[in-house]
Specification:
The complex is a heterodimer of chains A (585) and B (347). By secondary structure, chain A is mainly β. Chain A contains one helix and 51 strands. Classes of the chains: A mainly beta (585), B mainly beta (347).
Chain lengths: 585, 347
């Protein structure tokens, strides 16, 4: 008995010794622990300040990301176009006991109505450590007001949720003279009824009665508004599926009765890895029963993007991760649209890979894969002998996508934001051979991923592909192209959006939202505030019953990109292929 | 009662075996390889090629971030990896627990290899600006303790490597798009010499495309010429002194300054050139597409070679006996597998 016990103890001791020798550490250090020097950074009426973050744990931690929330007014509504900026935005590493001073400043678009505002900074070191501090600041009334009367000129008494109501205000002095430029304070009751901008625009977030109060000094005027439901309904109906199970599907482009879809990354099927070296061509003459007509394989590990020229004579497809290291683009002859023929491959200055492409007339706008100097403009008037005629890079970060319309190129330039180039519009004298920058908007929170310009309404819808916070769709007012400004956002909890397509006839924005499926959003009328709070979402569809995730090996919904074509919405799904949907309106 | 005792004994024995197995994984060393198309680092058992672990560097799940270079500090406590695409960055890991402890975004257009100074205090990352159209780009020097960027000298067009001499005095920088090799001073990162390698090899080659370097002595080094197809020999004082080791599109090269052994991955022909302790060079077919990275084990008797694979095959690693040329094992791991580093066994 004793011998047996000793034997067990000996085994256990040997085991512990082995484990100890393997682990190679005496005692584990205490884990990293982050702390801010102030639980609340009160800026008062200032617009900048400093706070310190330190690691009081025993192990290094890094990178420490500094995540900022939106700026909220006293009613809790997020103020579009305004946000905190930290410097740095990320601390590479914080060793045990180290501290780092963080500069905090406010980036405010236009002016804010007087009142209290708050925001938060979260310092996050992976999954291991995080800390948060609140930031508060105050906007004061202008004390020099000499107004004796104030009046809201609007006579509107009713609106739907999501309608933007303009609230012009007139102020007069004792002589009855109308005063210009008087600072107006706005408030609403109840305070969570909607969002009021400093320029006097209101959008409601809920039904019921709301009081909108304009004040200056001790004077005030009130407009009462009855807000009714927006009354939007609709649903998607699945019409057909173009199943692709061997490879992950990437972007799509439809022309007439043919759908072209790229493939992405590596998909393991029964122990075999199938990389994204294929362009699939689908005959969609009968959308309820798409037929795969042809598959073209090229030297690439991802064919991320495909675009067909408007006349349908050629297409351009992109190479990433080619075995020969040359990447570039392949130009396809579409004389037989169901069986494209390779016309040429162009690789000069494109060796790092091409991620996205836009074709406009005799020019292809190419986005280099993830390295600087990101845009190349290719003259494809002779598709057999394309040549680079221009390039552009914002000077920082990298270009992710390009959209061209009306002689303007809208560049989604990641951390550098949205950039507008004149490539023939005339506003700044640019041409494809010599693009000229018109404007840039850098305050979109980074990860600027894709854009759609709607000239009729004067908006650009900008996707932010941020997997951490997660990202949103930003609405940018470009009625003055030289001064773009953010006016609204659209968020769906849990995931980041991907590509989108706008039905400009009905004012419906279709957004592929990875695991959150395809969303349809009413974007009619003026846009302001948080669109997801305005009963504007018509329908969201997880057509595979997805789980809100986008696990690529699964069969979950993993929506990549939509396209409205011949009355149907086609969406490419990484896991499934293409799905045709009857739109909700 | 006896059944309980038996269970305990089995459990204790199993624990011991598990401990021994786990210990042997680290005692014989591990390999770290970067998978450029799945945005991962894989950890392999150096004795068998078995995959032990993986780390995810996927900053943008819908995009290719391309982990590229990887290097272990000489004290074996840390390793560093580069992310080449997007906003290029340098990642710092603790070996214990394979724990990420830092990351710094680099002010560059691209990033390729990461090299450490002999004292481990500085990491050098060249801006491999392949799409820069021949514009001059930089090498970034980062203090490893806190990942502060120390210097970003403009060097040449698309530098791919920046490797320190054994004494830390020099840094050799092959410049892929300008057919030059630039020598930087290891103390202040300023330029000391600039050598042309444009006219080596067979006449008619339009571009030499120098790619990677390895020091053979305190004042001599070799550089792979991807375009020319071979190895240039250089001396700090004399410049280019020779050319040899002809091969199709060689990528990385490593040299043991102790034994003189050399290994060079020949990306274009699926072979590795080896020369063990001064023996004549020979080529070994690795049986896989596009060999890329090379690193010796702890004593340069075994060389580990990463291969990229192609659009039909996985990447991976092979282990080759330097004395016999025998392929000891081949492990398919990763897609577009690029960098490889050896992590010594338990300290």
């Amino acid at each position: 008995m004793l011998a047996q016990r000793l034997h067990i103890c000996l085994l256990a001791a040997v085991t512990m010794a082995l484990l100890a020798s393997c682990s190679n550490t005496a005692e584990p250090d205490t884990p990293p622990h982050l702390e801010f020097s102030e639980p609340v950074l009160d800026l008062g009426t200032l617009r900048e300040g400093q706070v310190e973050v330190r690691n009081t744990g025993g192990q290094s931690v890094g990178p420490v990301e500094l995540l900022v929330s939106g700026i909220r007014d006293a009613g809790g509504a997020t103020v579009p176009g305004s946000h905190l900026v930290t410097d740095p935005q990320e601390i590479p590493t914080l060793n045990a006991g180290d501290a780092r001073v963080i500069s905090v400043s406010l980036s405010v678009q236009g002016s804010l109505i007087p009142g209290e505002y708050d925001a938060a900074i979260t310092a996050r070191g992976g999954q291991e450590a995080s800390a948060q501090t609140a930031v508060r600041f105050l906007v004061l009334d202008d004390p020099d007001s000499t107004v004796v009367s104030i009046q809201i000129l609007s006579t509107q008494t009713a609106a739907r949720v999501g309608d933007v109501v303009a609230l012009p205000v007139e102020t007069q002095n004792a002589n009855g003279t109308v005063l210009q430029g008087v600072q107006i304070s706005w408030s609403l009751e109840p305070s969570d009824a909607g969002y009021l901008s400093a320029s006097g625009q209101f959008v409601s977030y809920k039904t019921g009665s709301v009081s909108l109060v304009a004040s200056t000094g001790l004077l005030a005027d009130t407009l009462r508004l009855d807000v009714s439901e927006r009354g939007i309904t609709g649903s998607f109906e699945i019409v057909g599926r173009a199943q692709e199970s061997n490879r992950y599907t990437s972007d799509l482009w439809l022309h007439e009765t043919v759908a072209y879809a790229g493939t992405w990354g590596g998909r393991s099927i029964e122990g075999t890895l199938n990389v994204g070296n294929t362009l699939n061509v689908w005959d969609v003459a009968d959308p309820s029963s798409p037929q795969k007509a042809f598959s073209l394989q090229i030297d690439a590990r991802t064919v991320n993007d495909t675009k067909v020229r408007a006349d349908g004579t050629l297409a351009v497809i992109t190479h990433e991760g080619s075995s020969d290291g040359l990447n570039g683009v392949t130009i396809l002859d579409l004389a037989n649209p169901l069986k494209p023929a390779v016309r040429s491959r162009f690789t000069t200055e494109l060796e790092s890979g091409v991620h996205n492409v836009w074709v406009e007339g005799n020019y292809a706008y190419l986005v280099l894969d993830g390295t600087g100097n990101g845009l190349r403009i290719l003259d494809i008037s002779d598709p057999s002998l394309p040549r680079v005629v221009a390039d552009y890079w914002a000077g920082s970060s990298f270009l992710h996508d390009v959209y061209v319309r009306d002689g303007l190129a809208f560049l989604s330039h990641w951390s550098a934001g949205l950039i507008i180039l004149d490539v023939g519009n005339g506003i700044a004298g640019g041409i494809p051979e010599a693009p000229v920058e018109v404007a840039r908007l850098e305050t979109l929170g980074g990860q600027t991923h894709n854009a759609w310009y709607w000239p009729e309404a004067g908006y650009v819808f900008v996707g932010e592909e941020d997997f951490a916070t997660p990202g949103v769709v930003h609405v940018v007012d470009v009625r003055n192209l030289r001064e773009p400004r953010e006016v609204a956002t659209y968020a769906v909890p849990g995931q980041t959006p991907h590509n989108h397509w706008l039905d400009e006839v009905t004012g419906t924005l279709y957004v592929a939202w990875y695991g959150n499926g395809l969303r349809a959003l009413d974007v009619t009328g003026d846009l302001l505030g948080q669109l997801e709070r305005q009963e504007r979402e018509i329908v969201g569809l997880r057509y595979n019953g997805g789980l809100g995730t986008c696990d690529r090996p699964s069969q979950n919904t993993c929506a990549w990109a939509p396209q409205l074509h011949n009355g149907l919405v086609w969406v490419s799904d990484m896991n499934e292929g293409l799905i045709a949907l009857q739109p909700p309106r | 009662m006896s059944s309980v005792r038996a269970t305990r004994r089995v459990a204790a024995a199993a624990l011991a075996v598990a401990a021994l197995t786990s210990c042997s994984d680290t005692a014989s060393g591990r390999l770290l390889v970067t998978s450029g198309f799945t945005d991962q680092i894989f950890v392999l058992h150096a004795g068998s090629g078995r995959v032990l672990d993986s780390l995810n560097l996927d900053r943008r799940p819908g995009e290719r971030d391309e982990p590229h270079g990887i290097e272990v500090s000489r004290d074996g406590r840390y390793f560093y990896a580069t992310l080449a695409h997007g906003e290029p960055s340098l990642w710092k890991y603790e070996v214990d627990g394979l724990r990420l402890v830092g990351r710094v975004t680099l002010p560059t257009n691209g990033a390729s290899r990461v090299r450490l100074s002999p004292d481990g205090r500085v990491a050098a990352v060249p801006d491999y600006w392949l799409s820069g159209g021949g514009e001059v780009s930089r090498v970034v020097f980062v203090r490893t303790h806190d990942l502060e960027i120390l210097a970003t000298p403009e060097v040449c067009a698309a530098p791919h490597d920046a490797t320190f001499s054994e004494d830390g005095r020099w840094i050799a920088v092959p410049c892929t798009l300008s057919d030059e090799v630039v020598l930087l001073d290891g103390s202040d990162f300023t330029e000391r010499e600039r050598y042309s390698v444009a006219d080596l090899g067979e006449p008619g080659r339009t571009q030499a495309r120098p790619l990677n370097a390895a020091w053979t002595s305190p004042s001599e080094f070799v550089v792979t010429l991807q375009g020319t197809g071979g190895l240039a020999m250089l001396d700090v004082a004399a410049g280019v002194t020779g050319f040899g080791f002809a091969a199709d599109r060689p990528a990385q090269v490593t040299v043991s300054q102790t034994t003189g052994s050399l290994a060079m991955a020949n990306r274009g022909e699926g072979t590795v050139t080896i020369s063990h302790e001064g023996s004549p060079e020979r080529k070994v077919s690795i049986g896989a597409a596009h060999p890329h990275g090379v690193t010796f084990g702890h004593d340069a008797n075994i060389v580990y070679v990463s291969f990229e694979g192609d659009t039909e095959s996985l990447g991976g690693v092979v282990a080759i006996d330097m004395a016999t040329g025998e392929v000891l094992w081949r492990s398919e791991v990763g897609v577009f597998t690029l960098g490889v580093a050896y992590l010594p066994g338990a300290r």
